[in-house]
Amino acid sequence: MNKSTESVKIALLGCGTVGTQVARLLTEQRDLLSARAGAPLELIGIAVSNLETERDGAIDRSLLTKDTSALISKADIVIELIGGIEPPRTLVREALCSGSSVVTGNKALLATHGPELYDLAEQNDVDLYYEAAVAGAVPVVYGLRESLAGDRVNAVMGIMNGTTNFILDSMTTQNMDFDEALLLAQQLGFAEADPSADVDGYDAGAKIAILASLAFHTRVSLDDVVVEGIRGVTADDIASAEAAGYVIKLIARAERHFDSRGEDGIEMSVSPTLVSKDHPLASVHGSFNAVLVEAQSADRLMFFGRGAGGAPTASAVLSDVVAAAAKRVIGGHAPREVLYGDVPVLPRSESMSSFFIKLEVIDTVGVLATLTKRFADAGVSMASVMQNKSGHIGDNHSLATTQITIITHQVRQSSIDCVIEELQNSDDVVEVLSVLKVEEN
Ligand code: HSE
After folding, report:
1. In 129, 270, 305, 356, which residue has its Cα 20 to 30 A from 378's Cα atom?
2. pLDDT score, position 397
3. Three-state SS annotation for the chain
4. Would you tell me which CATH number, out of the four given (3.30.70.1650, 3.40.190.10, 3.30.360.10, 3.40.50.300), belongs to the domain 140-306?
């Protein structure tokens, strides 16, 4: 490798949990990172919104500045770790236009404005790196973009949000309810004070949009992802899943398949899903992330690790910094966006899955026959039917009820929607308690 004595100047925008760890590691490990990059790496400044805020002792306060534009104008590489859409969008544009390569961990920015920023990087002959934007330390962006460049990816799915995995895992293994588990996640520092982006699925939605664009060489955005969070998952759902041999996980999924007219398309969703206990994603516990890729030749690959937290995310940021700096020294570019797919995103009605349906029904002679007929009429094949808890409703609790759980074979969402509407209007059905997707091994 060429060695340069000229330093590569690095500007850090944002000094929160991840930014602090990036600044610490850039200082403590400067020699080895510089050796890998082939040039001395120099952190020239850290842009913050408040100079007075108390900070980790690892931060050299003389590097702090509020003049972000002046800092960007002097940098070879700009690391954006502010988060959110603005001001990061404006600042990243400013950095790219001024000739700096950019390293960002900002999934919301990329999932909504990625195309404009990739184009701007190309026009200005600089690079945009974003390994830290998806699944923290887990090198899945590199894996899809470079390790799998010789293969055809058919599906990407996984657990891409540590907070919700921690909550669902605590509900499963510690018998907590949702509110208790969320509070614990907040106390342990996983969940934000406003946990909406995590628990409502948008964080995972942004990540699967980024991975789908890479996997299928087609531009897709967060708006293309059908997103459902975990607020509706009850302790009762978790117990029913357990009894049937499943655990509930928030699964982000992008899959290529044919629609009902035989046209090729991409289905993308985030949804609480029953995952069979022998599936590799079922054993991902706590706040860990895992991404499973199904490729034509490689078959199944699983990327597993810490998807959040200061040091793990900083590890991904620094791998991009070393790569960006090495390109400055030896020339050339990071792999550009390769767009040839042009595969349409399928509407929700065309998505395919097995489903878990839990009903409370009147416990009367022939009720099962009536139910199974409704499924048969809609062309939905049942894989299993179970009867569990009994209860009573009505005046003086005179009417006996029972819970029925049904797991279907693979079916289109539109067919399940029809069955559910029929069931909701049926005299035998007291309530449709849950409808969740199922992922078999
Ligand atoms: N809040 C995210 C998570 C990490 O819990 O996984 C950043 O995307």
Report:
1. 270
2. 76
3. CCCCCCCEEEEEECCCHHHHHHHHHHHHCHHHHHHHHCCCEEEEEEECCCCCCCCCCCCCHHHEECCHHHHHHHCCEEEECCCCCCCHHHHHHHHHHCCCEEEECCHHHHHHHHHHHHHHHHHCCCCEECHHHCCCCCCHHHHHHHHCCCCCEEEEEEECCHHHHHHHHHHHHCCCCHHHHHHHHHHCCCCCCCCHHHHCCHHHHHHHHHHHHHHHCCCCCHHHCEECCCCCCCHHHHHHHHHHCEEEEEEEEEEEEECCCCCEEEEEEEEEEEEECCCHHHHCCCCEEEEEEEECCCEEEEEEEECCCHHHHHHHHHHHHHHHHHHHHHCCCCCCCCCCCCCCECCHHHCEEEEEEEEEEECCCCHHHHHHHHHHHCCCCEEEEEEEEEEEECHHHCEEEEEEEEEECCEEHHHHHHHHHHHHCCCCEEEEEEEEEEECC
4. 3.30.360.10
